[in-house]
Design goal:
globular; five-stranded mixed beta sheet; 22-stranded antiparallel beta barrel; 48% strand
């Protein structure tokens, strides 16, 4: 019943990015009273054929450059993240601690970045190697060069390649420009941080068929800190309960206090809290309140990008084009302390051990210099192409696309785990050169000499290269009674290579950064594809027009052989006001470089230990067999997760179904309404298992998973291994609603030249099921939050509604962004406090004024300073919710 109420509220609250999106059927945004009402023949995302933007059969969301200004976006991910079709399995600038590596990846339909293809002007952009993903880093594409963005919410593997399973994001840049334009903006969070400054300078000249455009874009942002009104970001929730009135209460922080907590070496149960040298008291859960004060919710970063676009016309039939991009980025994140420096095995003869017996000390080592993660990288991309006409009916395009990305990461003030063990043991330390005994019982107990002995700095270099040769020919094949049969043929060859070179300490796993094994590999593909638009009926009873869209692709991959995919669609205009559209497509995705060849890598995770206070008989028996005593309690707030590639992976296959109706009532001009159903089934899915699933299976399901679970000597979880594999199936389906309406006030009899606009879109998720083993049970994610607060969430409903008012030289607008409530995955909401997240509604405002050749915009995001919902276990989800809070921005654009 709750799901039906949420779906009904989608129709009431609406949904879309008012100033951001236009109807799903539109391919080019047109606004204002002087917008051309005629049909334009353009090539739209999802097809190689020329089609009218109004008659396009594919569900497309369009974002214009004006809309980008209205939301104060300085980076591409800020724009895309507000589109309701976007999932939360990617990585943004506001990410979980430890994931802020300066890269930004995004996905569609919660299918992950590997199944979302990002294009620039219809061509691939060189991938970037991140900590957790390989994909297109959106920071390399500045907003200042963007003309508009097309988001195809439909599978397009037959047109663009195997990785377009979830959809395609096509960034269309400016190509021809006369004059000089300066864009500048600044912003700041209500908390007084996250200051941003953005500067973009565009200059160009156009003479006939020749043009040159140069753009320089620079952005600098300070961090968003976990303090003041953002205390939710300092540390996770450690316990939750109900008070006498039935209200949930919770504690936050970590058991790793400033002085440390002594745990039983055999059971891992906390016993004493250290309060000073030789001083302690009995441990109590209320001691779990320590929070590091230097952690960030969003990293400080800098980006500088230069774009050059040129066209030269040799003749009326042949021209050449050039696209050059150079991008440089840097970022830094303080305060992240990996988990394997927290559980310290202290021998009896350590000089600070006044218990005089072996024990485990749980502590953040705040006596040591704060760890800092910093990275910087560069990206180069060049496209050189020829295009022209072959007679009156055909056009052709041939291009070479080369890209290279490289970055270096530095992990400062990390701990040499082997040297730490030596420094804790006076006997071993006496025999080691340069060693000074380390007293871990704090606070302020570690000497400078001991700190210098155990500290190290780690380095990691990564890189990626991509070369694409692409040729297409399109045109009109034959005249049929209902219209022209048009077709397109394309050939593409792609070669990619990448590497990850960590230093020796990471390769050996002796750094507190964790294990980070080298990666090296190459991939190549040669593909041939064809597309046809077949008109069947025109201007007959029951069919203003009826046509078929057919396409097929044959691919040969270096690591997995050959396969063919196909797509069929129908585009049926019953009348000028009603259009039906539907498609069925298949896809064949091979493992990307990281999935196939990625070395073992350590990341951080917040699990629920099944053995902690276990009551299920099977779980209790298995925990006892693992050496965990009665009353075992988990105290780890973070656990190391070992991920990595798998050379034995097989390709995954999928099918995509879309069906929708588009209404453009002739009786109601400027109104467009669409409703689309989507269904995606992925078979033999390439996926890293959820570490929580591995733990749950080990202790209550398939015991073979226990081989991937490691514990410290005291029983606390140390690491879980969850590398990529071919799991079972992923099934997701839902509905998307889009509405756009514009009305002059004069039509209401008012003496005004103003116009009101209404834009809405909503996505209702019917299902997202994942089968972690072939033939096994499905985990149902729809309407749930991830327990680890890292991999994102699956709200049933995401919707936006925008209202605007426009005069000739000024306009104002409001946007409401709604996310439905969710339950914590695997937790019974009726018995556990904080086991769900309440629905959230964000309010955004903007006002814009134009004066001569200048435009000025003022706005605020998250007007009511809505914090992210807190839940347990987990804390909060930075991938789904706004963690920055109220944010003010001002923009200016001047055309010279």
């Amino acid at each position: 019943m709750r799901d039906f109420r949420q779906f009904r509220s989608a129709l009431l609250i609406g949904g879309a990015i008012g100033s951001i999106t236009v109807p799903a059927l539109a391919a080019v945004q047109t606004t204002g009273p002087d917008a051309d009402s005629g049909l334009q023949e353009v090539v739209v995302t999802g097809t190689l054929l020329r089609d009218s933007d109004v008659t396009n059969a594919r569900p497309i969301t369009v974002v214009g450059d004006e809309a980008i200004a209205h939301i104060g976006a300085t980076t591409l991910d800020q724009v895309l993240s507000q589109i309701v079709a976007m999932g939360t399995q990617g990585q943004t600038g506001a990410a979980a601690l430890g994931q802020q590596d300066g890269n930004t990846f995004i996905d569609l339909r919660n299918l992950g970045p590997a199944r979302t293809l990002v294009l620039v002007n219809g061509r691939r952009f060189v991938p970037t190697v991140g900590q957790l993903f390989v994909g297109t880093d959106l920071n390399n594409i500045p907003v200042g060069i963007i003309d508009h963005i097309e988001v195809l919410r439909d599978g397009a593997s037959t047109t663009y390649g195997a990785d377009a399973v979830g959809g395609v994001i096509n960034i269309i840049t400016r190509k021809k420009f006369d004059g000089l334009q300066l864009d500048a903006d600044a912003g700041m969070a209500d908390a007084g941080d996250r200051q941003s400054g953005h500067f973009s300078l565009t200059g160009g000249i156009t003479r006939g068929g020749d043009s040159l455009l140069i753009n320089f874009d620079y952005i600098a942002r300070s961090p968003a800190e976990a303090k003041n009104d953002r205390l939710y970001g300092i540390a996770g929730i450690t316990s939750a309960s109900y008070d006498s009135a039935g209200n949930p209460v919770f504690t936050s922080g970590a058991p790793y206090t400033r002085g440390g907590v002594v745990a039983n070496s055999a059971t891992g149960i906390p016993q004493y809290t250290i309060t000073g040298p030789g001083q302690y008291r009995a441990y109590a859960p209320s001691d779990n309140t320590y929070s590091p004060t230097d952690s960030n919710l969003a990293a400080a970063d800098h980006h500088a990008v230069v774009n050059i676009l040129a066209n030269h016309e040799f003749s009326a039939a042949v021209s050449t084009y050039l696209e050059l991009t150079y991008s440089h980025r840097s970022n830094s994140v303080p305060g992240f302390i990996p988990t394997n420096s927290e559980n310290l095995a202290v021998p009896a003869d350590n000089p600070g051990n006044f218990f005089h017996q072996p024990l485990t000390l749980l502590r953040y080592l705040t006596d040591l210099p704060a760890p800092v993660f910093a990275s910087w990288g560069e990206t180069y991309r060049g496209v050189l192409g020829l295009k022209g006409a072959a007679g009156e009916r055909f056009t052709w395009d041939l291009s070479v696309n080369y890209g290279k990305s490289a970055s270096t990461s530095e992990y400062y003030n990390q701990i040499d785990v082997a040297k730490m063990s030596t420094a804790l043991d006076p006997t071993l330390c006496a025999a080691a050169a340069g060693c000074s005994v380390l007293n871990p019982f704090g606070p302020n107990s570690i000497s400078r000499a001991a700190a210098n002995y155990v500290l190290l700095n780690d380095t990691q270099d990564v890189g990626y290269k991509q070369t694409v040769v692409l040729g297409t020919i399109t045109g009109e094949l034959v005249q049929l009674p209902a219209g022209v049969l048009s077709g397109a043929l394309g050939v593409e060859h792609r070669h990619e290579s990448g590497f990850n070179n960590p230093d020796a300490a990471q390769v050996a796993g002796t750094s507190s950064v964790g294990l980070n094994a080298p990666t090296a590999g190459t991939l190549s593909a040669t593909e041939v594809y064809a597309e046809f638009n077949v008109p069947l009926l025109k201007d007959v009873p029951g069919a203003r027009s009826l046509g078929l869209d057919l396409s097929a692709r044959n691919s040969h991959f270096s690591q997995s052989g050959s396969d063919a995919t196909w797509k069929g669609g129908i585009n049926w205009a019953l009348t000028d006001s009603v259009r039906l559209r539907s498609s069925y497509s298949t896809a064949f995705r091979t493992p990307n470089l990281y999935e196939a060849f990625g070395g073992r890598l350590t990341s951080s995770y917040v699990p629920v230990d099944p053995c902690s206070a276990a009551t299920d008989p099977t779980t209790v028996a298995r925990c006892r067999a693992a050496g965990l005593g009665q009353g075992f309690t988990a105290v780890n707030t973070n656990v190391n997760i070992i991920t990595g590639g798998n050379a034995a992976l097989k390709p995954e296959t999928s099918r995509n179904i879309n069906a929708g109706v588009v209404l453009t009532p002739v009786a109601v001009p400027h109104l467009a309404l669409s409703l689309d159903y989507y269904s995606i089934h992925v078979h033999r899915a390439i996926q890293a298992l959820d570490p929580q699933y591995v733990l749950d299976q080990c202790y209550s399901g398939d015991a073979t998973y226990c081989a991937d679970v490691n514990r410290f000597q005291n029983g606390q979880l140390q690491q879980v291994t969850a590398i990529y594999g071919n799991i079972g199936q992923i099934k997701t389906d839902g509905f998307e609603l889009s509405l756009s309406y514009e009305k002059p006030l004069a039509d209401f009899g008012l003496a005004s030249s103003g116009r009101v606009t209404v834009n809405a879109t909503g996505n209702y998720l019917l299902r997202f099921d994942q089968q972690n083993t072939a033939g096994g049970e499905f985990t149902r994610y729809a309407g749930t939050l991830a327990r680890n607060a890292i991999t994102g969430s699956f709200p049933r409903l995401k919707s936006n509604l925008s209202l605007g008012y426009r005069q000739r030289n000024w306009q104002v607008g409001w946007t409401g962004r709604f996310i439905s409530g969710m339950d914590v995955l695997g937790v019974q909401p009726l018995s556990a406090p904080l086991s769900d997240a309440k629905a959230v509604l964000y309010h955004d405002l903007f006002a814009e004024v134009g004066y001569r050749s200048a435009t000025f915009t003022l706005g605020v995001q998250n007007l009511t300073n809505q914090p992210p919902p807190l839940y347990f276990p987990g804390g909060f989800d930075p991938a789904t919710y706004d963690v920055i809070g109220r944010y003010f921005f001002v923009k200016a654009s001047i055309r010279l």
